[in-house]
Structures are given as C-alpha cells and as structure tokens.
Amino acid sequence: MPNSHIAGKESAQSAIKEIALKKMALWSALIAVALLAACSKPAPAPEPVRAVKIHTVGSSGLVSGYEYSGEVRARVESRLGFRVAGKIVKRQAEVGQRVKAGQVLAQLDPQDYKLAADGARAALAVATTNRDLAAADFKRFQSLKEQNFISGAELERRETTFKAAQAQVQQAQAQLANVGNQVGYANLVADVSGVVTAVDAEVGQVVSAGSPVVRIAQDGARDVVFSVPEDKMASVAVGSAVKARRWADGDGGELSGKIRELAASADPLTRTFQAKMSLDASANLPLGATVYVFPSTSLNAVSAIKLPTSSLMQNAQGASTVWLLDTAAMTVNPVIVQVATADGNEAVIAAGVKPGDKIVSAGIHVLSPGLKVTIFNEKGAPAGIQPAQGATKSVVSSGSATTGK
After folding, report:
1. Are 85 and 112 in contact (CB under 8 A)?
2. pLDDT at 302
C-alpha cells in the first residue's frame, strides 16, 4: 500500500511537470511570434502610376545649308573731327542720339582763335590805311604829271606803291577770313543726319586737327556685315542672292538681299572674308541687330525627325536615350537614339526612333524600365496623346554635328 501511494504521487508530479513544460513552451512560442511581428517591416506600398507628357514622333522638313551670323550696320558711317586743334570745353552729342545736319555736336575753347581774328582785323585796318595813303599820293602825282612837273618814271613808282598797298589789303582780308573760319571750326557740326554710334573724346581733352571725336551712322541704306570662311567662298559672290532673318524674330521675318561687297583679302586674325549684304530701306532694322544670313545657293531641303531636347537624357554609358511608350501595356522603356545635330530647341535624330512612335517629353528623370504610366492632360486639354508640334524653319550646317548658331 505504501508503495502504490508513492508511485501515484510520483506520476502526479510528473504530469504536473509535463503540463508546466508545455505551458512554458506555449508562452515561448507566443513571445517569439510577438517579437517577430514587432520587428518585421510593413509590406511596401505599390508604386504610384506616374503621369507623363507624350510626344508623337513625326518627320518634318529641315532646311540644310550654311548659316552666318551678321550685324546690321549703316552703309556709310562718318567719323567727324574738328578741323583745328584745341581743348574740348563742351560736348552735346551722346551715343544713340539722333542728330540732324547742322546740329552742333561739340565745341573747342575759341579764345585763341578770337584773338587771332582781332589781330587779323587790325592788320586789315593798317593795310587799308596804307592803301588809301598810296591811292591819294598816286592821284596827286597824276595831276602833277599832267602839268609836266614830274617825270613819267616817278608816276610809275607811285602807281606801283599803290598796287602793292592794294595787294596787302587783299592779303589782310584773306587772312581775316581764314582766321574767322577757324573761329567757326571750333564748333563741331554734323554734316549729315543720322545716329551717333560712338564718342571718341571727352570734355577737357586736347585734340589735334582731324582726330575723330564723334561717329555718325548716316540715315539711309543698311548693310548686314558677316564673315565667310575661305572654304565657303564659292557660295558667296558679289551680286548673288541671299536670305536672312532677324534673331529677334525667331523663325519669321525673312529678308531678301544681295551680296554688295566682298573683301579681297582675309582678316589677319580670324582668316575669314568680310561680306556685306545690302538691305532694302523698307527693312527698317535697328543698328547693331543680329541677323542670320544664309546664301540661297547653299540651301537643301531634307526630311528629318526632330525631338524636343526635354525628351533626351544620357544613360550610364553616355549614350543619348529616350523613353518609348508601349501603348498596349502603358509602360515605358529606354531606347538609344543617335543625335545628328541641333535645330533651335529641338534635336535632329538620325536613328533610334521612327515616325509614329510615342516618347515621353516631360518627367523623364523619374522613370524606370517597365514602369506603368498615364498620359498627363493639361487642364482644359482633351484626353489622348497630343500630336507632335509642327516643325520650325531653321538652318543647320550640312554634314556637321553642330550649327552656326
């Protein structure tokens, strides 16, 4: 009996221990699950579908040829200077000022020339007095000769004295007129109407006779002055037709003219030849305006694919790429393109895309291969893919990767 009691007690203790161990294992499992749940990261949110602008690739006309940058200048530009030396005391002309013929541009100190004029007038008075005295003597001796009181030789001497005195009067008059002119030359007067383009002397400066003080671009015909490389001289000849457009007008405002003048020798620094294109007076271009000139003989119309520069980017290897839209899956993937040249704000593409392809034109730096996208529609714009914009007129350098702009 005692043995069975002891055995039952041991079995009960074993059952209690087993239950305790199971509880501990259960609590350990629950704690482990709780710890794992607390340490695990939340599931990533799905990547948003990005909205992009789309450009439809199209083929457009491209005018290929040589283009030169020129400047509008007056056909005649006068460099005016004083005809006498002196110190400038006043300058009325300013750069950009429009002046008329006869308008005073600058003045010298006239004091010395006024004193010289006073001396010339005094010399004239002396010569006039001597002439009057010689004339009176000659008249008196004529009367004496008629009465045979003097010889003919004496009368001739008196006549010679009178003529010399008369010549001295004329000399003094000429001297006075010359000095009087010099007083007037102390004022620099515009001899033509035009615009002041430069001022080469300031108040207080002593200038010599003939030194340029003011430059005036005369009103009238205008020229476009540009430089031509030696190997392109064949496309530019005196009298040949050329076309031009103003930089400020963008792609509009085409002008027509002819080559009026071509330099006979190259510039020693740039080794280019200066050419001048004549413009009609109706063009009414401001002086200094930038004008792009392209000879008509060098133009060649070709068809090319042009893309906005905002659609291009470089990959890790440095190649130019665009994002091509798969319209069926609405995903984008990078495509390598070959850029031939630039045409204003557009790039001329030689290979990589074809007309009809749809590429991303804005938002390219946040895309990744295979990313789903939607087409961005501006407020008030109709849904759907916008067509490519019309090609703009331009001139790019034929056979070159850059233009002359």
Report:
1. no
2. 62
The verdict on 341 and 356 lying in the same domain is yes
pLDDT classification of 11: cutoffs 50, 70, 90: low
- Give the least confident one: 63-67, 254-258, 401-405: 401-405
Higher pLDDT, 246 or 386: 246
Residue 325, Cβ density class (10 Å: 0-12 exposed, 13-18 middle, ≥19 buried): buried
At 229 the three-state DSSP class reads coil
| pLDDT above 50 (res 380) | no
Q: Which residue, 243, 269, 298, sits at the end of a domain?
A: 298
The residue among 356, 255, 340 whose CA lies nearest residue 304 is 340
Instruction: Specify the number of domains making up the chain.
Output: 5
Tell me which residue range forms the domain holding 208: 80-106+189-215
pTM attached to this predicted model? 0.51
Spatial distance between the Cα atoms of 92 and 179, rounded to a whole number of angstroms? 24
- Which of 62, 157, 168, 123 lies closest to 392, judged by CA? 62
Nearest to 74 by CA among 192, 190, 191: 192
Q: Could you tell me if 171 and 196 lie in one domain?
A: no
Average pLDDT of the residues in 378-403: 40
Strands 59-64 and 395-396: parallel
User: Do residue 23 and residue 129 come from a single domain?
Assistant: no
Same domain, 157 and 238: no
pLDDT of residue 378: 62
Tokens standing for residue 199: 């001022």
Q: If you write DSSP's letter for every residue of 323-384 in order, what string do you get?
A: EEEETTTTEEEEEE-EEEEEETTEEEEEES--TT-EEEEE-GGG--TTEEEEE---TTPPSS
Q: How many CB atoms lie within 10 A of CB 257?
A: 20
Q: What tokens were used for 343? A: 């045409």
Instruction: Indicate if 99 and 197 belong to the same structural domain.
Output: yes
Claim to verify: residue 96 and residue 197 sit in the same structural domain: yes
Which H or E run contains 3? helix 2-39
Residue 361, domain CATH: 2.40.420.20
Is 117 inside a domain boundary?
Answer: yes
Q: Does the structure show a pLDDT above 90 at 338?
A: no
Using the predicted structure, report yes or no on whether residue 287 has a pLDDT greater than 80. yes
- Residue 403 falls inside a structural domain: no
Residue 45 lies in a domain: no
